[in-house]
Amino acid sequence: MPEVLRAIAPLVGSVCLLQWLLVRAPAAQFLQFLGGAALAVLGMLMLLAGIEHGILPMGRYVGAELPRKGSVWLILGVAAALGFVTTVAEPDVLMLSTQVQKVAGGEVSGRALGYWIAVGVGLFAALALWCISHGYAMTRALAVSFGLMIVLSLISTPSLVPLAYDAGSVTTGVLSAPVLLAIGLGLSAVLARHSGSLDGFGILGLASVGPVIIVLLLGCFR
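^ thats the sequence. predicted structure below, dont judge the formating
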């Protein structure tokens, strides 16, 4: 509860200050804002409780069990599938897809964009787990991916480059981030290499690069 209040208090305080000094919004609208803020606090409390007591423990268990099955392809397949399905349902991705559909006027399909973003997250989440399971340095995978991203930014359709980077920024939300991070931590904890569970970090960064590269590649073939 204190963490949630500390997170939302600056926003509520800023709006209240603006209401008092500058904007003077109608009382009904201001009260609607306060009611929405209260609902946001309640929603965040429920969300954080669900993540802490449900999603994270199950994700770590799945990540810990996968190596015991003795199949690298199973690990990669599960990572790709979970990355895809959680991203498709990600609120931030849905919002971006909706806005693109409205602004592009049919030139870019919002639904197709959402699916391509999910494909990028799934593929690069699988790549991250491959790095963890084989002891490959995540820094190298990130360096190569960022290098490829920069090169593609220079040759892709200019109008799609900003959209590609926005596509990467909306992927680490309330659904995909806890699931992927928990699986990575669970996998690295079982493998217990030189840096232990710290090997499980980096999966979100690599997964966020995936949609950027996918959208930039689409721009190269337009």
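The chain is about 80% helix and 0% strand.
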